[in-house]
What does this fold into?
Amino acid sequence: MPQIIDGKAISTAIKEELKIEVGKLKEEHIHICLAVIQVGNDPASSVYVGNKKKACAYIGIDSQSYELPEETTQEELLKLIRDLNEKKEVNGILVQLPLPKHIDEDEVIRAIDPKKDVDGFHPQSVGALCIGQPGFVSCTPAGIIQLLKRSGIEIAAKECVVIGRSNIVGKPMALLLLRENGTVTVAHSRTKDLKEVTKRADILIVAVGRPKMITKEYVKEGAVVIDVGIHRNENNKLCGDVDYDDVASVCSAITPVPGGVGPMTIAMLMHNCVEAGKAQ
Ligand code: GUN
It folds into this structure.
């Protein structure tokens, strides 16, 4: 039986630590506030936004909610962001993605003041990560580093393979593993002989976006496997990009879906909000 990396427990521990820290900041009259913007009413986005606001309330972070109609124009959204950039009481700004097709996501992300970029998506935040300078880090990959560290898994000198090269997960994940002194390979849809590459991994991070694609044929005996995917299968059950039962028979540690990477994203968002509040 592999070690099951319990994202629910680890995220709860982080939230408890943050709750104490936020309580102490309040005694110094420092209040932290996150502005959450959602455009349209995509049901999945509404669930994510609701969970983010709930986490804020639990930890003691104020949240301001901006629920804008689907028809909101780019200019209207940019104006709201500029206003929030100026608002002293707002420490973090989160624009839930994806945005409606008529809005240019990159321009919206660029409009957020990097000091309030708690998602870590602004080019300045990504650039800072790339050259080892302080800045906000994308929450899902930052959460994965916490999962590994708090589970006693050493990263330094390990062969780390990341499958997926998205701006939100794959690329920042590779940079963070490198920062932890891992030897990092990024595989993607154009990688030749993916199995040959993934079988080298001591730590395999899977963010491919295809249900149960990674079976034990892709995994070295004793590897640590982190599953970023989340899908609903034909029976309405949640599953990841990793075929859990199959891979569990060969790996040394694995994250479940649900209860692995998912809860960590919000915990790290809360962490970034607290850091934003302290810095401002
Ligand atoms: N949509 C899916 N994941 C995320 C995330 O981490 N942040 C934002 N803003 N939108 C998302």
In short: The first strand starts at residue 3 and ends at 4. The longest helix spans residues 7-27.
